[in-house]
Amino acid sequence: MMLTLIHIELEKLFSRGRSYISFFAMLVIVLVIQGGMMLDGDSLIDFVSENLQEVFILEGNLLNGYLITFISINGLWIHVPILVVIVTGDMISGEASAGTFRMVLSRPVSRSKLILAKFITAMIYVALLVIMLAVLSLGLGILFFGTGDIIVFFESINILPEEILMDRFLMAFVFGILSMWLVGALSFVFSAMAENSLSPIILTMAIIILFTVISSFEVGIFEKIRPYLFTTHMNHWQSFFDYELDWNKIGNSIVILIGHIFVFLTLTLIVFNKKDITS
């Protein structure tokens, strides 16, 4: 029964034109970034490595596909949640506004099973979106710019050799899928409450922006609540580009993200099961 419901939901999802908007937007954004780096990437590398060249002798292909991918995903993780909630925020509220829930629930299927099928379908969509980001950014980056070592800057300066980079990027993208699943799960809560598709998108992005701002402050009361905000842990995909991986930090973030996903799914089930469906 559950597999049948998931199959039906997948057919419904991919039969709508709007479901392909996020994939098309992802393609355009990646192509724009790669094109920009192809035209003026050398200037960026010179600017970033100017101080390092006074201390180190930098040789080889610094403007390579791995570095382009790292730069791309730093910017795209800001935009990917928007592309996610455009679809996931509509999964429940879209049917409510279309007035099809009463007809769907007239069949021998429980509300919980229906929501679980929609949730799994949404998570499949999100995973495909992040996989497309990985394939486009890595594939086109390596095709156009080749490979090589990379220098990354965040908490410290790390110079990572080429031979470990593919594994690091694959782990970072898997972590990225988990982070975007959380975004989708949050939008599901609001989608179950709303009667239109716009409200879940606005509310989800508002919370993500608010929590991101709070996560950026490391003073006073903000410092005490930062470890409990999911936005603090969503950014830990960057931890895979430390020279030595801190598996305790990564594992803690994974547990917190998964915990939030289950909480949001539980809230969605509670809200939807209590919802008065009149159409």
Helix/strand layout:
Blueprint: H1 2-14, H2 21-48, H3 65-88, H4 93-98, H5 101-105, H6 111-145, E1 150-153, E2 157-160, H7 162-193, H8 198-215, H9 220-225, H10 230-234, H11 247-274
Antiparallel strand pairs: 1-2
What does this molecule look like?
The chain is mainly α. The protein has one domain (2-274). 72% of the residues lie in helices and 3% in strands. It contains 11 helices and 2 strands; from the N terminus they run ααααααββααααα. The protein has helices at 2-14, 21-48, 65-88, 93-98, 101-105, 111-145, 162-193, 198-215, 220-225, 230-234, 247-274, and strands spanning 150-153, 157-160. It has a two-stranded antiparallel sheet. A hairpin with a 3-residue loop joins β1 (150-153) and β2 (157-160). α1 (2-14) crosses α6, α6 runs antiparallel to α11 (247-274) and α7 packs parallel to α11. The longest helix has 35 residues, at 111-145. It is globular, with a radius of gyration of 21 Å. The two termini are 24 Å apart. The relative contact order is 0.13. Residues 53-58 have low confidence and may be disordered.
Order of helices and strands: HHHHHHEEHHHHH
How helical, in percent, are the residues? Answer: over 70%
Radius of gyration equals 21 Å
Distinct helical segment count = 11
- Tell me the strand order in the biggest sheet: 1-2
Q: pLDDT below 50 for ≥5 consecutive residues: which ranges?
A: 53-58
Percent strand: under 5%
How many runs of DSSP E, i.e. beta strands? 2
Overall shape: it is globular
**N- to C-terminal separation?**
24 Å
Class derived from helix and strand content: mainly alpha
What's the number of structural domains?
1
Overall pLDDT confidence: 83
Largest sheet: 2 strands, antiparallel
